[in-house]
Specification:
Elements lengths: L5 E2 L17 E2 L7 H19 L4 E2 L2 E2 L1 E4 L4 E4 L2 E3 L4 H22 L2 H6 L1 H17 L2 H9 L4 H27 L4 H10 L4 H21 L1 H7 L2 H4 L10 E4 L1 H4 L24 H4 L20 H12 L7 E4 L1 H6 L3 H8 L2 H22 L4 E7 L6 E3 L3 E12 L5 E8 L5 E4 L2 E4 L3 E12 L6 E11 L2 E14 L2
Antiparallel strand pairs: 1-2, 3-4, 5-6, 6-7, 8-9, 10-12, 11-12, 12-16, 13-15, 13-17, 14-16, 17-18
């Protein structure tokens, strides 16, 4: 069997003159198997969500829309305002603890199966394979002189990559600008300047990262590769080469007992390197470039099947399990250890608190600002007047009419501004005049309370406290 398919990079500089290793282009071999199937399941799942959500409708609007111009985030039945940034903070904390939890259990699951870099590289490689052929044909095509068939294949690949990248950029912008407006802009190319910028920007980086740079993004740019070591411990499940079983490696005919020829189970075919999207040799031990995609496991298992050897020469295991020859029960018992249990409990509590916060989230909010041009003045009839400015946020998806009442001082009443109509998921402004008899309170600040209630739903009510100023 042939070794890893790579083409030496052309460089005129000696290794001493460079700050990093010159790139050697990888011709990644296609592999099938259990983990390859799981990667494609995640590709389909993540991309159906990403490309499909902008097309869903909810209450005659886009179901998921982070409308920056309106400063509102629509997420199915919820409408989030800038005041809801707390939920975003909690969601980021949940994401961080989920990363800690799953990494402590089974290493770089995110990188291997759900990271956009992995997902889009998988898609771009599939397109490349369909147009240019398998890894051997792609290598030969690179080495061949330019010709019409080569130009046609290369041009077709670049064209499909470009169209896919533009559609990806368009979909990304559709999360922040209404999809219907974007679709109407396509025939006349009437995109706004920022819309056009972000479509092209996101498309260009999708093309660059997934089509051109690929493993270099994981090797040089991704910070997770650098700090993953502090999240692993000897009981973390990682992709492991069983050196005790595999060494010494070497070629032999099918059906030969490796012990009879003084060798281990590894036949040194190099297929585990050929299928690796970052081009590493897992037999050299765990390396920070390994993204945990498990392609080498699928490849090695197929080789072991052909050689009539047991599977698992390369497998998910832990450092302690390899050293102490643990079975699955011992591995499972150590995977769920105090560290992962603490992460899991914290993660569960955060998720419960997040869901509870959404469930009890008040659909009505009111901001009260005193009119500073008229803090408190005496008018005819021995009354004191204070003026307030109300911002009423209707966070429901139905138009509401709200009624306002005031309490806290004897004889307090609203002179004007008792009702306000607010559109669905909108804000209504209201100027309220409050009148109080002069002798109803002490000179200075006196506590009062405003209650605002939806006329069609008395249960939708909110009380806000402020002060009423009586001149001395």
């Amino acid at each position: 069997m042939s070794g890893p398919s790579r083409q030496p990079a052309q460089t005129s500089s000696s290794p001493q003159d460079t700050l990093y290793e010159a790139r050697k282009k990888l011709y990644v071999r296609t592999v099938s198997g259990v983990f390859a199937n799981w990667r494609w399941v995640m590709v389909w799942l993540t991309q159906l969500v990403f490309y499909g959500l902008p097309w869903l409708s909810w209450n005659d609007r886009q179901a998921v829309l982070f409308h920056l111009a309106e400063r509102k985030f629509y997420l199915f039945g919820w409408v989030f305002w800038p005041q809801d940034v707390f939920f975003l903070a909690v969601l980021l904390i949940i994401s961080a603890y989920a990363l800690f939890f799953f990494t402590a259990i089974a290493g770089r699951l995110w990188c291997g199966y759900a990271c956009p870099q992995t997902v889009y590289t998988e898609i771009f490689m599939w397109i490349e394979q369909k147009i240019e052929g398998d890894h051997i044909r792609r290598q030969k095509l690179d080495q061949a002189e330019m010709s019409a068939p080569k130009a046609l294949r290369r041009g077709g690949k670049f064209l499909v990559w470009g169209l896919f990248s533009l559609w990806t950029g368009f979909t990304f912008v559709a999360y922040f600008s209404p999809l219907e407006e974007l679709l109407r802009s396509i025939p006349v190319f009437g995109f706004g300047p920022w819309e056009l910028f972000w479509i092209l920007f996101y498309a260009a980086f999708t093309y660059l990262f997934a089509g051109v740079m690929r493993e270099q993004v994981c090797t040089y740019m991704c910070p997770y590769a650098r700090f993953q070591a502090v999240m692993f411990d000897p009981d973390t499940l990682v992709i492991t080469y069983d050196e005790e079983r595999g060494e010494p490696r070497g070629a032999r005919r099918k059906g030969i007992d490796p012990k009879a020829v003084g060798k281990g189970d590894c036949i040194d075919c190099g297929i585990c390197v050929q299928v690796c999207p970052t081009g590493i040799d897992i037999r050299n031990g765990l390396q920070y470039e390994c993204i945990g995609c498990a392609a080498c496991i699928d490849a090695c298992d197929q080789v072991m099947d052909r050689m009539n050897y047991p599977r698992g020469l390369i497998r998910y295991s832990t450092e302690n399990a390899v050293k102490k020859h643990w079975g699955r029960k011992e591995i499972a018992a150590h995977v769920f250890r105090p560290r992962t249990l603490i992460y899991g409990v914290i993660l569960a509590l955060l998720c419960v608190a997040f869901v509870w916060g959404l469930a009890v989230r008040d659909p009505l909010r009111v901001d009260i600002i005193r009119d500073r041009a008229s803090l408190g003045r005496e008018i005819e009839g021995g009354l004191i007047e204070n003026v307030y400015r109300f911002q009423v946020m209707n966070m429901t998806e139905a138009p509401r009419t709200f009624h306002l009442e005031v309490s806290g001082l004897p004889g307090a009443r609203i002179g004007s501004g008792e009702r306000v109509e607010v559109a669905p998921a909108a804000t209504g402004a209201l100027t309220v005049q409050v009148l109080v008899p002069y002798d109803a309170g002490q000179p200075g600040a006196n506590p009062v309370a405003f209650r605002i209630t939806a006329e069609d739903d008395p249960g939708l009510s909110l009380e806000e406290r402020t002060t009423f100023l009586i001149p001395r």
